[in-house]
Design goal:
This protein is mostly beta strands. The chain has no helices and eleven strands.
Length: 117
């Protein structure tokens, strides 16, 4: 089992920055990749970014490319999402997820990000 706890979400003005954190515990040695997803009210959950745990290779949704950066600290078993140039449409509940065997099987409880215009 892997446990995930997100933090860092809050209210921020458009154009501002925010860094989300996701601390992993449990069987972290078996993690293949970790991802950030978000879900806005009335919308489906969408992929934001992912990082391969061993190599550090990163992947982004087109909507956040160039503004968001995903990174990891292996020693702390923590993944970060640095969000710059935030827009009101970035408002959502942000979740991190861990993939051990090809699917995101473990999810955090989410952290709310609200961007005011």
């Amino acid at each position: 089992q892997v446990q995930l706890v997100e933090s860092g979400g809050r209210l921020v003005q458009a154009g501002g920055s925010l860094r989300l954190s996701c601390a992993a515990s449990g069987r972290t040695g078996s993690i293949y990749r970790m991802g950030w997803f978000r879900q806005a009210p009335g919308k489906e959950r969408e992929f934001v970014a992912a990082i391969i745990w061993s190599s550090g290779n990163t992947y982004y949704a087109d909507s956040v490319k160039g503004r968001f950066t995903i990174s990891r600290d292996n020693a702390k078993n923590t993944v970060y999402l640095q969000m710059n140039s935030l827009k009101p449409e970035d408002t959502a509940n942000y979740y991190c997820a861990a993939d051990r065997v090809g699917n995101y099987d473990y999810w955090g409880q989410g952290t709310q990000v609200t961007v005011s215009s």
